[in-house]
Design brief:
This protein is mainly beta and 300 residues long. It has helices at 2-17, 47-50, 206-215, and strands at residues 24-29, 70-71, 77-81, 85-88, 95-99, 102-103, 111-112, 116-121, 128-129, 140-141, 160-162, 171-172, 174-179, 192-198, 201-203, 218-222, 229-236, 240-248, 253-262, 265-272, 279-286, 291-298. It folds into 2 domains: 20-207, Jelly Rolls, CATH 2.60.120; 216-298, Immunoglobulin-like (Sandwich), CATH 2.60.40.2550. Strands 1, 3, 8, 9, 10 and 13 form a 6-stranded antiparallel β-sheet that branches. Bound molecules: calcium ion (CA) (3 copies). One calcium ion (CA) binds next to loops.
């Protein structure tokens, strides 16, 4: 009986952690004539595109506030990263993109639409564009108003839905939206992103997640081998508490060089091995969701 309760509890916790929204914007290039969401401080970005769609938006009342919408401008581009989940190809549509399209004069036959073209990627390196049809507007986003229903239900949510089976990809972590610019002639203006919501998804395994995160972090040492001083250079993808320690060849910790909150970006520290014996050591840099190790050699 006790075991049964434990199982239920773990199941609930795991379920609560799965979120159908992206975790971060990994790329954003704003084209000319961008409007909503842009000011000199960009204070609402990127939170305005990482949440659910504007809950008050619907066909007759489009979202137009920078707290919710970010304009891409002419030919602008944005890439959203789903780190906690992989969007997977299951039956029907797999994710929905919400723009602030609206019914002109509240007439559902007249839609004010600003087009975006969609590409997806599994690894953040190779992107595959959804083939689109400029006549039917199939696989173009910015076409369908937000309908104010349940955003995880494609039948009630509005927005534009995409099905990975159409490009034969089983799972993705990145969604790229590019303002259509002059690629589609009946485009009204610049794409304004409200939200991207996953419909079919699975939690990312820790191993895969770590691989993604390690891409933005690095640790290098030069010279190496060294005597007795060397320079340690590392970069952080985000501001966080990091620990930099040295271990000997037996895995015994012999020194902590850094243990504090550091800003994202590049950092540099000099290490002086005067008090250590010649030999092989390991430098370990640990942060919020990553850990990097480097072999260093002291030769006196
Ligand atoms: Ca599908
Ligand atoms: Ca718009
Ligand atoms: Ca939004």
């Amino acid at each position: 009986m006790k075991k049964f309760f434990l199982f239920v509890l773990i199941g609930k916790i795991a379920f609560a952690q799965i979120n159908p929204l992206p975790n971060e914007v990994v790329f954003y290039r704003q084209g000319p004539n961008a409007t909503i969401g842009f000011d000199t401080t960009n204070i609402f970005f990127p939170q305005n595109v990482l949440g659910f769609p504007d809950s008050l938006a619907e066909g007759c009342n489009p979202s137009s506030i920078p707290n919710e919408i970010q304009s891409l401008g002419d030919g602008g581009e944005i890439i959203l990263h789903f780190a906690d989940i992989a969007i997977v190809d299951e039956d029907g549509s797999d994710f929905t993109i919400f723009e602030n399209a609206f019914f002109i004069g509240c007439d559902s036959n007249l839609i004010y639409r600003e087009f975006g073209i969609v590409s997806v990627s599994k690894d953040g390196i190779n992107y595959f564009e959804f083939p689109f049809d400029t006549l039917t507007l199939h696989n173009i986003c910015g076409v369908t108003p937000t309908l104010g229903g349940i955003f995880t239900n494609p039948n009630l949510s509005g927005g534009d839905k995409f099905d990975l089976s159409e490009i034969g990809i089983d799972s993705i972590h990145f969604v790229k939206i590019t303002d259509a610019g002059n690629r589609i002639s009946n485009d009204f203006g610049n794409f304004d992103l409200d939200a991207v919501v996953a419909l079919n998804f699975v939690p990312t395994t820790n191993r895969v997640k770590e691989n993604f995160e390690n891409k933005n972090q690095s640790l290098s040492v030069f010279p190496n081998p060294f005597n007795p001083k060397t320079k340690i250079v590392f970069s952080l993808a985000e501001t966080q508490t990091v620990i930099l320690q040295i271990y000997d060849i037996n895995g015994k910790k012999i020194s902590t060089l850094i243990n504090k909150n550091l800003e994202n970006g590049n950092h540099e520290i000099e290490f002086d091995g005067s008090n250590f014996q010649s030999g092989i050591y390991f430098l370990k840099l640990s942060g919020k969701n990553f850990s990097l190790t480097k072999k260093i050699i002291l030769t006196k």
